[in-house]
Amino acid sequence: MERKELIRFENVSKIYEMGEVKIEALKDVNFTIDEGEFTVVLGASGAGKSTILNILGGMDKASGGSVIVDGEDVAKYNAKQLTNYRRLKVGFVFQFYNLIANLNALENVEFAASVTPEHLNPADVLESVGLKERAKNFPSQLSGGEQQRVAIARAVAKNPMLLLCDEPTGALDYKTGKMVLKLLQEVNEKYKKTVVLITHNSYLAPMADKVIRVKSGSVEEIVRNETKQSINDIDW
Amino acid sequence: MGFIFKKLFRDIRRGLGQFISMMLVIAVGCFFLAGMSEASYNIDKLVQDYYSEQKLAPVTGGFLVATDEAVELVSRRNGVNAAAGRYQFNTFFTYGGGSSRVDAVVNTLTDGFNEPLIVSGKMPSNDSECIVDSTFAKANNLQVGSSISLFQRTAEKVYLSTTDGSLDQDKVDYENFNVVYTSPSSVNAEYRDLTVSGTFISPEYIYKVNTADSSAVAEEFACIYVNSADMIAPKISFYINKLPFPFFTQNRDELEIKLYNQILVDSADGLDVFDVFDDNVLDTENKMAGIYVEAMSYVKEDGTAYKNFDEAYRQIRNLVIVLPLLFFLVAAVITFISLGKIVDNQRTQIGVMQAVGISKGKVYFGYLMYAGFAAIFGSLLGGIAGAFSLPYIYYLAFGSQFILPPFEMGIGIGWASLGVAVSLAVALLSALISCHRTLKENPAQSMRPRAGKKVKPILIERWKGLWQRFSFGTKMIFRNLLQNKMRVLLSSIGVIASMVLLITGVNLKSRVSYTVNDYLGRIGYDVQITAQNDIENLDDFIADHPQIESATKVVSVNATVSANDERSDILQILVPHDGSFVNLYSDFEKTEKIELSQDSLVLPHYLAEKLNVQKGDTVTVTAVGYGAAELIVTDISYQYLLPNVYAGENLIEKVSAENVTGLVYAKLASGTSIEAGGEIKSALDKEALRARALKMSELLDVFVVIVVIGAAVLAVTVIYNITSINVMERSREIATLLVLGYRKGETGWLIFAENIVITILGCLIGLPLGYGMFYWLAQITSSMNVIIPINLPFLVVLICTVAVFAFSMLATLMMTRKILKIDMVEALKSVE
């Protein structure tokens, strides 16, 4: 199946300047991701994978190079354009869920959906992550796994082009983590969303269409899995 | 220990805005605590020292006549350390070849009592020299070396009356003498030329009141000292009168002795005039040494100048005790809240520090240092600034009404030190309590985020129809506010305090302005004219001055009013022959006008309250120098500035006063004016009267402005501080919103809207509290001359509310910039 190229990182670099010291977090990062692909970015702590995700998500700006998303160079966006980009094209899932404490599960989803015109039905999405019964519960009344599912529903309901997940299972136990990953895989398949998942857990590599290994701020290798495995078949 | 310091300084640097705003709140508290207390203490000390250095007489005895023998007798009394006689009289003078008369009070210099402080030139060295008070001299360009022509009586008649009506002068029972001290009538007078040898200020004239017309415009009349009583005291002829009137007079004696009419006494503390002068007539071996007049005697504290200063000072001191305490209390509460939040925000760090084995003591130490630094820097900054600036402002403010000795206030650091100590104690205690709460938990607990607060649906959600309509932002705001009622209340403390201060300050200011308008509203004429002499025929006077369209003579009677065992101070009863020149109202809204008739007696409401009388009750009016009469109060009128008792013409006869006056209220033809000169000693138009009225309220005004400025600073710093804590606490939530694609404006609005709700709440709570505070301050700062009306106009509420909103929004806008700078990556990375 021929897929359209959605993302292209070209010689992307990121330098953090902290006073006198310059830290090169990314240097000459190059990769592409196709539309609808499930990509896993693998790397040890400090390898630069979160920086890639932050730049890709429009939360941070690259110091050099270009970040082409859907034909436009995000690296050249100003703050306002970045906000719009995040608003319309990106959905985030974080390690620590970051739900709004004062909104209940459904409202958290509705709230995120409300900022984009082409959002999906929040109740449906919440149902699809299996939380129909918990819709009226507030984050403090939900378990970690449930909160993360709400977070995924929140990201999906925006109907974004891109779903970015930063260690989404980092704070979850094995079983719950697996459930969350399964959900992400389902989202990728059911809603045809391009998913970029960041993890340090190399056992997760087989679940992706493409694996980008990052080391010391550079791409070490890019592997395309001919057949991706269901998360159900992966153990770690 | 080194790392604790490093962490401390980095904490301060990272949250510099927060640290500074906390410091500022403490600084504002200490500025007012130290500054106002220091200033108040200093101004009092300055004046008290002045009194004692210039030897203000503790007791002043008034005499119709007193001889050296009388002085000697007084000085031998128990408890009297020293006594000296002097002669004091009211007169006028002309100078610079002009014909206009200047009212003056003339005193003889007395060694060891009421010593004037020379400002320029020198003391008079002979009988042809005098010194003039520097305020008058400066305002009227009267210089050392100028000469003045002083009008003085050379001979006087004094009437004495006996209670038994005995006319046998050889058998007069002096013990039972009843002295009637009409102003002695002049039988002979002349102008005497004197050279001004110097100018002075004097402790007995720190507040100058012209006895001729009771006005207190220091530039318009003069105080003069001359060398000896010989040169100014007139020869006196005594007449013994039989009661009842009409007079039957018989020349008794002409005394060719040195005379005084005052005896100044230095007595042991607490001695009253009665202890010093307990005889009506001092008599040794049947020789009259002096005729005592109780009504003209007073202890130091009852002297006009002393009393006026003391009253003004006490007014201000009352403000001074309350406001710094309030400012300080707010500072303490804010310090407490801020530190609590700061420690709470670093809870995880504290857990980590404990986990790696840092002793609790060191953890405490770090936060205590943070609190200590904020308290010490803030309180030093505020305390020193206050202690160095406010005393000077006080001096200038008091100097606008009082003639004070040169500014040499000892800038003490006593109050500033107290401020530092108390701030430090409050801050340390706050830090201690906050740390204790966190350190109570074991490290494992504190390293984990606090269990999320249980969020429950709020009440409004039950109205599904309404709730569904709300935007998510609104829902969040509602839940935030209603779930964290305590936080909202604490956050609104700054707003409440500002509102309280503003309502108090602005309303005081507005009410003081009202008193000025109230005073001007009473004036139903264009100009108040004082003639050089008594006006016998008003028609002639009007004919002489074609500008005058109509006029009325006004007799002023100095009297006391008493009822129900309460007695007023000596006050002026104004008796306009035609009552239509005065506008008096019997209600606050000024709808019920009082018509003055022949029998009217209208008391100002403050006096009616003091005497506990109502309309229709009977009071006793005792005219100073004349008789007393029982009169019915016909009306009670609302008067706030320089209130007067007004009466109809019949009062004059009833208290046997003289129906003569040089005071005229006149209405002028439009477009004309009338100036002093010739027959007219002074002409005060409405502008001049307004200026006079404004001067009365000026002192209070200055302090009100200080209060308002303080409220503004406090409001901005407190709201900034609280909002900054709020934002810091919610940085993660804000970052989440930003990541979700919420625009910065939309995100800012959430904080903004919350602050609006908090501000509304603060205003609602602050309004009644502010009114209460105003009510209380208005009562304790009201004096005989300025009575503060107790009401709260809607406009004041509006102005204060708008101001508080402006302060709050200003602080919020400053914060919004901070929100926009939140680094999403950083904020979301940190685990809370």
Strand content of chain B: 15-25%
Provide the residue-averaged pLDDT of chain A: 87
Strand order, main sheet of chain A: write it out.
6-7-8-3-9-10
Give the overall form of chain A: globular
Textual characterization of the structure:
The complex is a heterodimer of chains A (236) and B (832). Chain A is built from 6 helices and 10 strands. With 236 residues, chain A is an alpha/beta fold. Chain A has one domain: P-loop containing nucleotide triphosphate hydrolases (Rossmann fold, 3-Layer(aba) Sandwich). In chain A, the strands form 2 sheets. A 6-stranded mixed β-sheet of chain A has the order 6-7-8-3-9-10, with helices on both faces. In chain A, strands 2-1-4-5 form a 4-stranded antiparallel β-sheet, with helices on one face. Chain B folds into 4 domains: 204 residues, no CATH class; 154 residues, no CATH class; 182 residues, no CATH class; 145 residues, no CATH class. Helices cover 47% and strands 22% of the residues of chain B. Chain B is built from 22 helices and 29 strands. In chain B, the strands form 4 sheets. In chain B, strands 17, 18, 19, 20, 23, 24, 25, 26, 27, 28 and 29 form an 11-stranded mixed β-sheet that branches. In chain B, α2 runs antiparallel to α7, α7 packs parallel to α10 and α7 packs antiparallel against α14. About 2% of the residues of chain B have low confidence. At the A-B interface, α2 and α3 of A face α13, α19 and α22 of B.
Short description:
The complex is a heterodimer of chains A (236) and B (832). With 236 residues, chain A is an alpha/beta fold.
Question: Which helices and strands appear, and what pairs or packs with what?
Answer:
The complex is a heterodimer of chains A (236) and B (832).
Chain A: E1 5-18, E2 21-34, E3 38-43, H1 49-56, E4 64-69, E5 72-73, H2 79-89, E6 90-93, H3 105-113, H4 122-128, H5 144-157, E7 162-166, H6 174-190, E8 194-199, E9 210-215, E10 218-224
Parallel strand pairs in A: 3-8, 3-9, 6-7, 7-8
Antiparallel strand pairs in A: 1-2, 1-4, 4-5, 9-10
Chain B: H1 2-14, H2 16-53, E1 59-66, H3 68-75, E2 80-86, E3 88-95, E4 102-108, E5 117-121, E6 129-133, H4 134-139, E7 147-162, E8 177-179, E9 185-201, E10 222-226, H5 229-232, E11 235-242, E12 251-255, E13 260-267, H6 273-276, E14 281-284, E15 287-292, E16 298-299, H7 304-345, H8 347-355, H9 360-399, H10 414-439, H11 443-447, H12 464-469, H13 472-483, H14 485-522, E17 527-531, H15 538-544, E18 548-563, E19 566-567, E20 571-576, E21 584-585, E22 593-594, E23 601-604, H16 605-611, E24 618-623, E25 628-632, E26 635-637, E27 645-647, H17 650-654, E28 663-668, E29 680-685, H18 686-729, H19 731-739, H20 744-781, H21 794-820, H22 824-829
Parallel strand pairs in B: 4-10, 6-9, 7-11, 20-27, 23-26
Antiparallel strand pairs in B: 1-13, 1-15, 1-16, 2-13, 3-4, 3-7, 5-9, 6-10, 7-8, 7-9, 11-12, 14-15, 17-28, 17-29, 18-19, 18-20, 18-24, 18-28, 21-22, 23-27, 24-25
Helix pairs in contact in B: 1-2, 1-9, 2-7, 2-9, 2-10, 2-18, 7-10, 7-14, 7-18, 9-10, 13-20, 14-18, 14-20, 14-21, 18-21, 20-21
